[in-house]
Amino acid sequence: MEKFVIVGGNRLKGSIKANGSKNATLPILAATLLTGGVSTVHQVPRLRDVLVMQELLTYLGARVTFEGNTMTVDGSNVQPQEISEDLMRKMRASNLVLGPLLSRFGHVKISHPGGCNIGSRPMNLHYKGLNALGATIKEKFGYILADTSQLTGTVIHFDVPSVGATENMMMAGVLAEGTTVLRNAAKEPEIVDLQNFLNAMGAKIVGAGTDVIRIEGVKELDSVTHTVIPDRIEAGTHMIAGAITQGDVTVTNVIPEHLDPVIYKLMEAGVQVDVGDDWVRVQSTGQLKAVDIKTMPYPGFPTDMQSQMMALLTVAEGTSVITETIFENRFKHVPEFRRMGADIYLEGHTAVVKGVKRLTGACVEATDLRAGAALILAALAGEDGTVLSNIEHIDRGYERIEMKYNSLGARIIRVNS
């Protein structure tokens, strides 16, 4: 087990580059299962979740190479083999193989997926959509069994705009017979990137980025080359790193409009934010101010940035109110912040944060991916040293984050416990 030892108090300054989006990469890699051709994907981040997806693709028979940040997937020998619990439980996004395997082969047997314990993420919307397309879904002994003789296009209305269900139905619908229409679809930028990838393969999809997506089924898909969009959550985390340390940080390789909710909340908190074509500069020299946050589906404030923003608000002047509407267990970082001297009161899905002058070092642990990132930010702004354990969660979504922050003047050491 590895830990981070973090000495706070340094002002971060300089330029840092965001990687390709983890949340766009995972469905795109799952979509490579739709074709027997060769898919080449650029700007793939070297993250634990990505390596698990590589392992999953290889298990299914794909020939995968991963050099630098380019992954090549040859799907000519893929077979819909039973996927064990050990493999599926390593990552929540493993459920994204359900749609493409069912669409291409007509049969899937997978264990229930795992991932961060941040709240209930049921499969019912996935099942509802696949049933509407003509699949039979059964659950037995912890496995999901899906069968179909031919998926047929239809209209699917999601009860809530689920990102995973939208992605799975897009991948299931591309080879279905006829037209599939997804209503109340998720609108995240990662959905648009998946549409662009699938269309480059020969699919016919329009509407991604809106709440209605239309898919015209095609007979087959072909080889493709694609570059993944930048990671808006990683970029937002780096922006807050600059702000919380009273620093001056430029984040490159970004799509600024994907960061609008974070940009506006930072500006509201008293941070200067300058925006270019593919970069964002954050400068913070004055007293941070309290702001209220409510997480919402895109284009609202992202739940994946809630804990990082809370870290910032623990040292802001005044009282902030944070309301979490997406996941019910996404305040597990609060007790860890309290260990560092934060003043936070929880009431159901709402956190009341009273800013303190300074956080202090402590022994804390990452309870999930984004909570771990938030604790790094808090430690950077804190006094003395912080020891952060369970950093394997952080490695799921940030590629060597300690090296990036050390290049800006931070003091973070990765050690074996």
UniProtKB/TrEMBL annotation:
Kindly report, in one word, the top-level EC class recorded for this enzyme: transferase
Where do the catalytic residues lie?
116
- What's one GO BP annotation on this UniProt entry? regulation of cell shape
Q: Which UniProt keywords apply?
A: Cell cycle, Cell division, Cell shape, Cell wall biogenesis/degradation, Cytoplasm, Peptidoglycan synthesis, Pyruvate, Transferase
Question: What job does this protein perform?
Answer: Cell wall formation. Adds enolpyruvyl to UDP-N-acetylglucosamine.
- State the family named in the UniProt similarity comment for this chain: Belongs to the EPSP synthase family. MurA subfamily.
Protein known as? UDP-N-acetylglucosamine 1-carboxyvinyltransferase
This chain's source organism reads Desulforamulus reducens (strain ATCC BAA-1160 / DSM 100696 / MI-1) (Desulfotomaculum reducens)
Gene behind this protein: murA
